[in-house]
Amino acid sequence: MHDAIRARLVVLVVRFFYAIALVVLTWATTARSQEIFLTRPLLDAPRPPEPIDNEVRFFLRGGFAYAMPKRVPLVSSSLGASIDVRHITRRLTLTWIIDIDDRRGAFASTSFGTGVGLFYGVPRHAAFAIESAVAIDWTGDTFAGPGLSTRIVIQPFFLPLRLANRCAGGPVMAFVVSALSVWGLARVDFTDAATRGSTLAFGAGLDLMHFIVAPIVESTHGFAHCSVRL
To answer: Distance between CA atoms of 149 and 194, rounded to whole angstroms?
Structure first.
């Protein structure tokens, strides 16, 4: 009885994630050609449209998970890549994702997954992504079975890598603040009895492309581009 309730809860969470993605997709499609900059005076000339960038986001993530079959907390860590595949609008992008997830606690499990996602980012403001992946799970050196996951990622301050490479907003904003994110995940595993079931997880992440690669690129210019102006 309790297992059925928990399974229904996970299904409702996943449906909620997809409903949010549908709302974002609809809104982005209707407003695809509009650029609004609230920080500029109304009488100023409009800022030219932002270039459309193809980017790779490489996240180091950490957080906590709750595994339903054993009702135990776990520590979750992962490496994930999000690669732009096709721009649907200027701000909405179809992405290919790769995810390596490790869970430790009452049991240990590692998964290798790949899938697709939608990334919606407004430069100098926030970004939102929803990602779904199919994974294979391993417990130790033993193949345990497949799994499905859906992850939501929010970057409170989004700066394209092109601007981060030029140290826009200063080094703290370009290399640290723009690299931060928070995430939530719903997962179902079709594995052995020790790990079978659903998992809910949440945590924070760091985009290594902004945190490591961008400072290296800017250092070749002696940090001459660094400016507090965005």
So the answer is: 18
Q: pLDDT digit string (tens) for 175-199?
A: 899 999 999 999 888 866 555 678 8
> Residue 63's closest CA among 198, 209, 182?
182
Query: Residue 47: phi, psi to the nearest 5?
Result: -70, 140
> CA nearest 100: which of 77, 129, 84?
77
> Do 115 and 105 form a contact (C-beta atoms < 8 A)?
no
User: HSE of 143 in the Cβ direction (CA atoms, 13 Å)?
Assistant: 4
Cβ–Cβ contacts within 10 Å for residue 48, how many?
7
Enter the pTM of the model: 0.73
Q: Count Cβ atoms below 10 Å from residue 175 Cβ, excluding itself.
A: 23
Pair of tokens at residue 175: 């290399």
